[in-house]
Write a structure and sequence with these properties.
The complex is a heterodimer of chains A (about 200) and B (about 425). With about 200 residues, chain A is of the alpha+beta class. Chain A has helices at about 1-20, 60-65, 80-90, 105-120, 140-160, 185-190; strands spanning about 95, 125-135, 170-175, 195-200. Chain A has a 4-stranded mixed sheet. In chain A, helix 5 (about 140-160) links the parallel strand 2 and strand 3 (about 170-175). Chain B has 4 helices and 31 strands. The chains are: A alpha+beta (about 200), B mainly beta (about 425).
């Protein structure tokens, strides 16, 4: 029974990942977009949301725009582009949770294992910010606390996989910044997550 | 126990020129028997016994002043507007016929950019119970109406009203969640913060001068204090994560809040200058949402220690913890009635959140049901009203209702609005 519900949750989470491509514009500006893109004819930079607090006009990163017909093989240097690239290619994967819980199930652990592998290798130069998110079916205040626990659970697991704790910061957004705006189980499942954001090492 | 609600439709009419305002309020049976009927004709737009020195904008007087004043009176809980026959001068005979125990005589005129208001509350014998003179800038007409209705209630009831209270809340109408304030009736909505970043969960100081809230202005959640005019903003630095659900002690200068170390959110205290951080809860579970009892001796909070979020109460030192919510699989947002005898909280019932009011003396609780999800109740300082947020319109908005759920009024309409906190003092 427990196994089955886990499978369901995992499938829902996977579905949500794919479905979320349609909702790209709803996504908060500051966060990178995480969904895989199969038939990319333009490089992801073109869709980069404007950075919120830089007054400079947003220009596509020309280095990648011109020749590329597929997602770049090379790791982008722009941090937003890098985040999209790393999530799209599955180098970095978010961990998803059950309602009101902060335990990492098997799917969440394997997502974080993949992330840790990349962070130890190709991504070793980057730090990470882990955002804890909750779905709207909880209450705002408890969810802020629950999001903190989710983010920390992901951080702790990454450290057991060999990622230096000094590279990881956490923040909780509770239910304030949903990834999916829908009011259904697939949206809720997509919104209960520890979201990994790559940041420049200081 | 027979206690039936009696709904009174109070018709308010000045002369036939002025449209009638229908306000339907609900009073309990015993309230209705003690009701004081008051005749409030539309103001004369000139000084008493003199010609108007300059033209008066009648529409402005009606909407900003007279409308607010008569709504306050109708919602006072013990005053009823006596319906006036249209086009008839108000005489002692007329007052007797409409069974009015009081007559509010109003003169409103313009002087330069200001309005002058002369208000006399007269009983049938002609004796003046109250006289107030105001000079009000245009923008403050609604505020002046609330001041006058408050004086009337104080004169007749001996206690201040709720009409001058303020409600703090978070709104995203500018594109970012910022902290806003409004009058008790939703008038004068104004932005207090300008972080340009997610700012949430304002909570008033006991003297109504300051608010503490959470903002993500630095990319992480921090605690800030700001005065009610938007100045004097300071960050209260705890060295902990979260810094959410901050709330001033009703006595002294402690703030209770949710802090977290290593993913373990607990209830902490901190002085308002950022010193003396103390941990009150020590379990490994998620704790959140502290709220002080009105005398400052107890703190309610939410804990997941039983496996689901439930409401607990502890002494302000962190001892003597006891659970007070037993129904519903997710309870949060406890808020104490001003007399300390009840706690209103958010309680999930059949998949939707509703406001539940628990009586701490009898241990009984009841749901004040409404459409949609209804969360984050906050009591008015007179204990008669609860403001809360509901998504019944499809978006989060702040509403106000009597404690028994009647006289529901939507207070916000622009963007989304939530996290209301009612000011702690009546004036």
């Amino acid at each position: 029974m427990k196994k089955i519900s886990k499978v369901i949750v995992v499938s829902i989470a996977m579905l949500a990942l794919f479905a979320s491509a349609a909702c790209k514009t709803n996504r908060k500006k500051v966060e990178p977009i995480t969904q895989p893109r199969v038939e990319e004819t333009r490089p992801p930079e073109v869709e980069a949301p404007p950075a919120r607090d830089t007054g400079t006009p947003v220009e596509p990163a020309r280095d990648f725009v011109v020749e590329e017909q597929n997602p770049p093989e090379v790791m982008p240097s722009d941090i937003d582009a890098l985040n999209r690239w790393a999530h799209e290619r599955g180098h970095i994967r978010d961990a998803f949770f059950n309602l009101a819980e902060a335990q990492l199930d098997d799917a969440a652990q394997s997502a974080l294992q993949a992330s840790a592998t990349w962070l130890r290798g190709e991504g070793a130069a980057y730090n990470v910010l882990i955002e804890g998110h909750c779905d709207e079916r909880g209450t705002e205040q408890y969810n802020l606390a629950l999001g903190d626990r989710r983010a920390y659970a992901a951080k702790e697991y990454l450290t057991t996989l060999g990622i230096n704790a000094g590279r990881i910061r956490t923040v909780s957004y509770g239910e304030e910044r949903p990834f999916e705006e829908g009011h259904d189980e697939s949206s809720w499942a997509a919104n209960r997550r520890a979201h990994i954001v790559l940041v420049q090492a200081r | 126990m027979m206690r039936h609600a009696l709904t009174l439709t109070l018709l308010l009419a000045a002369t036939s020129v002025f449209a009638q305002t229908d306000i339907t309020t609900t009073m309990s049976g015993d309230q209705a028997t003690q009701v004081v009927r008051i005749a409030v004709p539309f103001p004369e737009l000139n000084p008493p016994g003199a010609a108007a020195p300059q033209p008066v904008d009648m529409n402005e007087v009606r909407t900003a002043f007279f409308g607010s004043l008569t709504r306050d009176i109708a919602y006072s809980g013990f005053l009823a507007l006596a319906p006036l026959p249209p086009g008839v001068p108000i005489t002692g005979e007329v007052l007797k016929r409409i069974n009015a125990q009081l007559h509010l005589q109003l003169n409103v005129w313009s002087e330069g950019d200001d309005y002058r208001i002369d208000a006399r509350l007269v009983d049938p014998s002609g004796a003046t119970q109250l006289r107030k003179l105001y000079r009000s800038p245009k923008a403050a007409l609604t505020r002046t109406a609330h001041m006058l209705s408050n004086e009337i209630v104080k004169t007749l009831n001996g206690r201040p009203s709720v009409f001058l209270t303020q409600i703090a809340f978070a709104s995203n109408r500018t594109g970012n969640w910022e902290i806003w304030l409004m009058d008790w009736d939703g008038a004068n909505q104004r932005r207090i913060t300008s972080h340009g970043a997610l700012s949430l969960l304002p909570s008033w100081s006991p003297d109504n001068e300051r608010m503490v809230y959470t903002s993500f202005a630095r990319g992480t959640s921090d605690m800030y204090i700001i005065n009610r005019r938007g100045g004097g903003r300071t960050r209260v630095h705890s060295n902990l994560a979260l810094n959410t659900s901050a709330t001033f002690s009703p006595v002294g200068n402690d703030i209770a809040f949710v802090g977290s170390v290593n993913g373990n959110p607990d209830i902490y205290l901190i002085k308002d200058d950022g010193s003396n951080v103390r941990r009150l809860t020590t379990t490994g579970s998620v704790e959140s949402t502290p709220e002080w009892s009105p005398n400052g001796r107890q703190i309610s909070f939410t804990s997941g220690r039983s496996g689901s979020p439930q409401i607990y109460v502890m002494d302000a030192e962190g001892t003597n913890v006891r659970r007070i919510s037993f129904e519903g699989e997710w309870n949060d947002d406890a808020n104490w009635s001003p007399d300390g005898e009840k706690i209103a909280y958010t309680s999930r019932v059949n998949g939707r959140f509703q406001i539940r009011i628990a009586n701490l003396i009898t241990n009984e609780s009841r749901i004040v049901a409404g459409e949609g999800s209804n969360e984050q109740p906050t009591w008015s300082p007179d204990g008669q009203w609860i403001a809360f947020q509901s998504n019944r319109s499809g978006r989060w908005q702040v509403y106000r209702m009597r404690v028994d759920g009647t006289d529901l009024l939507q207070l916000t309409f622009d963007g989304e609005n939530k996290g209301a906190d009612w000011s702690k003092k009546p004036e």
